[in-house]
Design brief:
173 residues, single chain, alpha+beta, six-stranded antiparallel beta sheet, Rieske Iron-sulfur Protein, 11 strands
Length: 173
Amino acid sequence: MTRYEFLRSCGFTGGALFALLSCVKEEDSYVEAMTRNPDGSFTNPDGTPAGGVTGTGPDESLIISTKELEALDFLYRVNVSSPLYTRLLTRNNYVVLGNTFVLALSREGRYIAATVVCSHENNRTVSYRNGEWYCPQHGARYSLAGKGLNEYGAKGIKVYKTAFDGETIVIYE
């Protein structure tokens, strides 16, 4: 039983539960807090971009022609030259799109996308972290293919296909 499960079973909820969970001992396992910036990006406690930068831009071998991109029946379209999305040109970064999708540039340089809705309790809090999809609400973890990696993520999440022509990223099924 995790500390969270124990405290919930004791009846703690809301602010009291948060306060108790934020009190950690050195031997406890915990994730240091990130800071949300005004542009919606996150910064690690040491000031580096959240997720850590492990490479440069997208893998150029995955770029398709604009004609091929336009032929796709896409769900969402992003132009990486827009200031809102330029962080997607740096590996290990992500953005949340329309409170519907999470779009990231993986450590390997592939664009990946998933629903922002966590299957554990349908919270719209899924993000990309350390090479996997993650929901901070209860710690649900998912592989990049959407498979649950722990008990909170057991139901898995929806992932989507992506395509990139060097300027535009599309999310499609």
